[in-house]
Design brief:
Layout lengths: L14 H24 L9 H23 L7 H11 L3 H29 L13 H24 L5 H19 L9 H11 L5 H25 L3 H15 L1
Keywords: Membrane, Repeat, Transmembrane, Transmembrane helix
Pfam family, one: MIP
Protein name: Aquaporin SIP2-1
Amino acid sequence: MSPAPSSRARIRPWLVVGDLALAAAWVCAGALVKLLVYGPLGFGGRPEAEVVKVSLSIVYMFLFAWLEAASGGASYNPLTVLAAAVASHGGPAVYLFTAFVRIPAQVIGAVLGVKLIQLTFPNVGKGARLSVGAHHGALAEGLATFMVVMVSVTLKKKEMKSFFMKTWITSIWKNTIHILSSDITGGIMNPASAFAWAYARGDHTTFDHLLVYWLAPLQATLLGVWVVTSLTKPKKIKEQEADENKTKKE
């Protein structure tokens, strides 16, 4: 998940096309890396395979971060645009545009991307699957998302100017969390990608999928943004709120 924009959000309809295209490209990129590592490169089940996958993942995460910046804010992950909308305090119009236009566009793009990669490479597989109970999986996916969102939003709050450092930190952190949770839920932390692979398998409407890959990460994103915003409030705002609370008590 890329860092959420720090400036005040506004409705930009053209981003919908970028969202759709990036979501499709993202699922294709992830699938191609796995095909490359376990196919032509011939690493198979060797320990080196994970190192190569992470290395290639960091490369394409830099590419997607650049594409997001070049497009003015398009994204492949619903959690990114949700965090941006909430953190920017853009108002009901921005929230509704994000929830009912941008996120559906990302889901459609991801579904199209999965269909394309499966048509091109029939042996690509069927995506990550939940390997534990629904509630255990929801806790794992929610916690993973919360940790990624915390770092992502914090970096934006600090307004780090270096594109390289910002992307390097987020990519390393996200890959670390992905590895830790991959044996449980796949460590997807992207509802659009999770839905696209589940749709291809036919289990996209199950309770387990909705709880683990939608409800848990969405709630974790909202919680993460709230926690970071609360902890990084400017000193003046904190003093004003403290004065208001003191006045109410009196």
